[in-house]
Amino acid sequence: MVGRAEFDRRLILGLGAGTALVTATGARAAAVLGDDGNYAQDWYLDSFLDLAEDAEAAQAAGKRFAVQWGMRGCPACKRLHTTYFAKPDIETFVRERFELMHLDTFGSREVTDIDGERLGEKAMAAKRAVRTTPTFQFFAPRDGKVAEVARMPGLLGEKDFLEMFRFVAEGAYADGSFEDWLRKRQAG
Q1: What Gene3D superfamilies is this protein classified in (predicted)?
Q2: Model pTM greater than 0.85?
Q3: Mean pLDDT, contiguous 10-residue spans, the chain (188 residues)
């Protein structure tokens, strides 16, 4: 019989080896607490931090591209990663349709923005007016270039959180606001 500490050790070793994980909730992934104190998913995009390239690669793979902003010690970020993404319906929908990159609102890594400007994460968060965490910025081609097409500032309730991802996945942002789209779905 394996004790809890041994199970945790095997789990960590398995994740380090790139082993697929099915959690007790049925989700295929696990929240990872990085050395920087930020939570992310083990399936989040690992990139050279060039948002335009990442958006193009996501599109080529038939997915949408989004940036999730977080920060060390954010309780809503922890809930996002340990509760929301632990639910198979949420994790599966988002994982199958989106490439997500995690950026830190107080981070110092250099990122190339969609427009080609190179900034540290903290400066980019200020430029992009990210004022709360977690914030999701959704990007897609618009008028011949990649642009932000929707934003989730803060953590919505679980149902609306998933609906926001549906809204973007369906391209409904082209026809109006998330709030209007959600009202129509709830009325219909």
Answers
A1: Glutaredoxin
A2: no
A3: 41 37 53 86 93 96 97 95 95 97 96 97 98 97 92 96 97 95 89
